[in-house]
Amino acid sequence: MPTFPVSFESKKQSLFLFLCGLFLTNALIAEIIGAKIFSVEALLGMSPAQIPLFGTQLDFNMSAGVVNWPVVFITSDIINEYFGKRGVRRISYLTAGFIVYMFVAIYATTELPPAQFWLDVNKTDSLGNPLNIGEGFNKIFRQGLGIMVGSVVAFLIGQILDVTIFAWLRKRTGSKQIWLRATGSTLFSQLVDSFVVIFIAFYLFGDWSVTQVLSVGSINYIYKGIVALMMTPILYIAHAVINRYLGEENAHKLAEEAHSQVEE
């Protein structure tokens, strides 16, 4: 087993804590904002795409959670590279636990009776239309609860698939072809994740049709696939920064040690 200097052990721990913090923070943010469905065409000032798919005209409408999930994907791959299956599983189970904790905390807040002055102060929207902010709060966050349940299930399935495929590809490519194992594992795992989370969140907990689930799930997966490819240069930059921080030789030893444990 490789031996490392004391200073390196400190850097390794700091790196793992930073990556785990980045992973956890973005996963929780994605859960909270995921209840909003936004229009990509409107964001870009374009007309609706109206793509014929599943017997309907499909527009590029996606959960706002897609803004943060790419950071989770790339962080997961970096943790996997340097800390192996064990490292990814630790943060994945921890994140799932915190998502459940957040689920319970948010549900509890929606059960709290609203103060009358809060309802009165916020009784109209920016256009002067009547607004029940208490009902709006509950509707948004309880819809978000469905996303959280779906995400916990889809997240764990996706992470297990991602870490398994990543390790399988690394065993065959060694330390080379980072893009192949990172992008390949992400594309496969997110194929499952994209549809599971939408189905649970908006079909089981909501009132979407199967067609809507398939449509939005397809758009989300297309987006994730494009982003996974576009983030390949960022992945290489991240590896270069980490290798410089740890030292090229130490970084290589750390990665090899992590994946030799996987093969045991």
Your description of this structure?
The chain has one domain (6-263). It contains 9 helices and 4 strands. It has helices at 6-33, 40-44, 69-110, 116-121, 133-173, 178-204, 210-230, 232-246, 248-263; strands at 37-39, 51-53, 56-58, 61-63. Helix 3 runs antiparallel to helix 5, helix 3 packs across helix 9 and helix 5 (133-173) packs antiparallel against helix 6. The radius of gyration is 21 Å and the shape is globular. The two termini are 13 Å apart.
List the helices and strands and how they pair.
Blueprint: H1 6-33, E1 37-39, H2 40-44, E2 51-53, E3 56-58, E4 61-63, H3 69-110, H4 116-121, H5 133-173, H6 178-204, H7 210-230, H8 232-246, H9 248-263
Antiparallel strand pairs: 1-4, 2-3
Helix pairs in contact: 1-3, 3-5, 3-9, 5-6, 6-7, 8-9
How would you summarize what this structure contains?
By secondary structure, the protein is mainly alpha-helical. It has helices spanning 6-33, 40-44, 69-110, 116-121, 133-173, 178-204, 210-230, 232-246, 248-263; strands at 37-39, 51-53, 56-58, 61-63.
